[in-house]
Amino acid sequence: MSKRIDFYTASPDALKAMLALEAAVGKLGIDPVIMELVKLRASQINGCAFCVDMHTADMRKAGETERRIAAVCVWQEAPFFTPRERAALGWTEALTLLAQTRAPDEAYAELAEQFSPKEMVDLTLAINTINSWNRLSVGFRKLPQA
Predict the structure, then answer these.
(1) Which of 14, 56, 81, 132 has a C-alpha 20 to 30 A away from that of 7?
(2) SS3 93
(3) What is the Cα–Cα distance from 115 to 81, expressed in whole angstroms?
(4) Cα separation of 105 and 55, whole Å?
(5) What is d(CA 121, CA 127) in angstroms, rounded to the nearest whole number?
């Protein structure tokens, strides 16, 4: 797979807006562990090699265990995640695969059991943001360093 255009230099204003959104999401107070789980899971679903590489590295730096990192792709079957993390991962899958799932009531109910309304909106914006980054990176073939 070959790299396409560098979206950072092709449209600096667009990337300035994305970076501002990322910064705003970072100030919403979302638990950093949940934030990284969400970023990794969405990136796995979207097949974003750059983002999977970056977020697994970020998780390791933050002290996350290899066992949990490896199990994110099978979180439903793995016993390593809290109910709150599971709700966030389920909502991430529901929104990342929106055309297939239509954000099912079950995923919403699990989310509402674990998160306040404000947290639900904040988490949803974080999921939207990583999906946008994934689409930029996959679409323009941004690849991890070898």
Answers:
(1) 56
(2) helix
(3) 16
(4) 29
(5) 10
Number of residues written out for the chain: 146
Distance CA 94, CA 43 (A): 13
Integer CA distances (angstroms), 25 to 1, 42, 68, 123, 124, in order:
31, 16, 24, 9, 10
Tell me the pLDDT tens digit for each residue of 36-75. Answer: 999 999 999 999 999 999 999 999 999 999 999 999 999 9
Q: pLDDT per residue over 14-34, tens digit each?
A: 999 999 999 999 999 999 999
Q: How far apart are the first and last CA of the chain?
A: 13
Closest CA to 71 of 37, 35, 31: 37
Cβ neighbors of 17 (< 8 A, separation 6 or more) are none
